[in-house]
Amino acid sequence: MEFIQAFILGIVQGITEFLPISSTAHLLIVTKVFGWKELGSKDFVDAIQFGSVMAIVLYFWSLISSIVKGGIEAIKEKDWQREELKIIIGIAVGTIPALIVGFLLKDILPENALIIAIMSIIMALLLGLAEKIGARKRGFDSLQIRDGLLVGLGQTLALIPGVSRSGSTLTTALFLGLERDTAAKFSFLLGFPTLTIATLYKSLKIFQLFQAQQLPDNIVGLLIVGIISTFIFSYLSIAFLIRYLQTKNTLIFVWYRLAFGSAILLAIAAGWQG
């Protein structure tokens, strides 16, 4: 059963990490509903995010390598206006706020169903507003350092359970006038360093607990299953969202978040402890 649980958690993590609906929220609700206390620990679900990191690298490998190569050439040629260099600086600048705030608040922010429900509804309304008033005229070649900073500031909201890293960055990017698929790509690229660092941090914590013999003997196998499952469904999720946003709007996610948050509120009102 534990291996089945690890596989299912990988599916949930993979699908919801990149769709603007909050992976933290869905993982927390799933583990609470089914009572998966051991594998539902934040350390485990954060560690299997490594599968999501690998999916970003594989899916965007040509784009990432092109940006890095262009950035290196720009530094060598002292071409400070080159597009790739601006994107790299923008991603770096946008990553700093999330890392600082995340480090300061990592043990403070509570995770409970009520907060998830409220934030899911609030972010649904903000995404709907961004969809309504966003200009959607700017492509990937128009990205500036300022975009990285502002989208990075938006990313800090994802530290609140129920907000969603991809949701907050996508919403901010749409407010800045980016095209939908450009907003999604930039959201993934900007979230990549933060996701990677957070995953490595949690993996180190898992390793320390394993050394102290505070984890089950089969934890390595469970992590492998969870990471593989996460990788597969993360890749599919990224591919789906990029293609979907090339021709369609984000309102399906707005309605889903409203329904998700409302369902949790109704369950709490009916006596569910969350």
Instruction: Kindly name the structural category.
Output: mainly alpha
Count of extended strands: 0
Helix content: over 70%
Our measurement of the CA-to-CA distance between the termini, rounded to an integer number of angstroms, reads 23 Å
Quaternary structure classification: single chain
List SSEs in N-to-C order.
Answer: HHHHHHHHHHHH
Put simply, the count of helices is 12
**Radius of gyration (Å):** 19 Å
Overall mean pLDDT stands at 93
Low-confidence stretches: none
For the sheet with most strands, the description reads: none
How big a fraction of the residues is strand? under 5%
The coarse overall form would be: globular
Written description of the protein model:
- This protein is mainly alpha-helical.
- The chain has helices spanning 2-18, 23-34, 42-47, 50-59, 61-77, 83-105, 113-133, 145-155, 165-175, 180-211, 219-247, 251-269.
- The longest helix is centred in the C-terminal third of the chain and has 32 residues, at 180-211.
- The mean pLDDT is 93.
How would you summarize what this structure contains?
The chain is an all-alpha fold and 274 residues long. The chain has helices at 2-18, 23-34, 42-47, 50-59, 61-77, 83-105, 113-133, 145-155, 165-175, 180-211, 219-247, 251-269.
Which helices and strands, and how do they pair?
Elements: H1 2-18, H2 23-34, H3 42-47, H4 50-59, H5 61-77, H6 83-105, H7 113-133, H8 145-155, H9 165-175, H10 180-211, H11 219-247, H12 251-269
